[in-house]
Prior knowledge:
18% of the residues lie in helices and 36% in strands. The protein has 118 residues and is an alpha+beta fold.
Amino acid sequence: MPACGDGGLHVHMREDETMYLLDGELDETIGGECFTLRPGESYFALRGVPHRFRNRGCAPAHSLAIHTPAGFDAFVRETGTPLEEWNWGITTSDEQLRHVAGLAASFGIELLKPSGQE
């Protein structure tokens, strides 16, 4: 996740999410619990539980994300941007958000609060 990155508050209806942080720090919200994830720590978010991760730091954070059962990887392929094509200074337009929200719904993911919204 880039510096100042935000995954937005969202909920997976089809898969559980586990994240293991390799470096950096992420502010996490899972259900009603808020905490800071540090390198070597992990979290587990059950499907159906809203969660969010944000990098409020000045450096990127790197993690391993595991979704069970498989299927979330197809959503990432549909919505992701290859690293070599990523423009770190871009902002997301309303049209892009609507497109991602539509794709998310087809993968059983609901975007409750997009990136950048409190």
